[in-house]
Amino acid sequence: MPDHTDELDALLGLIGRRLRATRVAQGLNLEQLACLTGISAPALSLIETAKRDARVTTLARIARALRVPLADLLEDRTSRPGEAGGSNGQGYDLGDYR
């Protein structure tokens, strides 16, 4: 049976980098995303740095909070013309968390 550890590590790294890039592009810090997802900031940091393997349900919660399709975190969609991703233009309500 082939060892796919390197392949899986690379995938985790890509997902983490996409997650961080999306979060930063939307002007959110880890604490704010933690408030929106109910996932602790340290746990989010571990996912972004590929030190924690996130479950699909966790990634779905993060994608929902970032208002992007889950697929945007899982696959490279930047090279597909005509597909829109990202925010739908609505703001964030973090008032309860300040």
Distance between the termini: 51 Å
Helical fraction equals: 40-55%
Helical/strand content category: mainly alpha
Beta fraction: under 5%
Low-confidence stretches: 79-87
Got a strand count?
Answer: 0
What number of domains?
A: 1
Shape: elongated
SSE arrangement, N to C: HHHHH
Please identify, by name, the CATH architecture: Orthogonal Bundle
Query: What is the CATH fold-level name?
Result: 434 Repressor (Amino-terminal Domain)
Cα-atom radius of gyration:
14 Å
Total number of helices: 5
Q: Describe the sheet with the most strands.
A: none
Q: Which class in CATH terms? A: Mainly Alpha
Q: What's the CATH superfamily, by name? A: lambda repressor-like DNA-binding domains
Overall pLDDT, averaged?
A: 85
Q: Summed up, what is this model?
A:
This protein has 98 residues and is mainly α. It is built from five helices and no strands.
Describe the protein in words:
- The protein is mainly α and 98 residues long.
- The chain has a single domain (5-74), classed as lambda repressor-like DNA-binding domains (434 Repressor (Amino-terminal Domain), Orthogonal Bundle), CATH 1.10.260.
- It has five helices and no strands.
- Helix 2 (30-37) packs across helix 3.
- The model is unreliable at 79-87 (pLDDT under 50).
Draw up the topology in text.
Elements: H1 5-25, H2 30-37, H3 41-48, H4 56-66, H5 70-74
Helix pairs in contact: 2-3
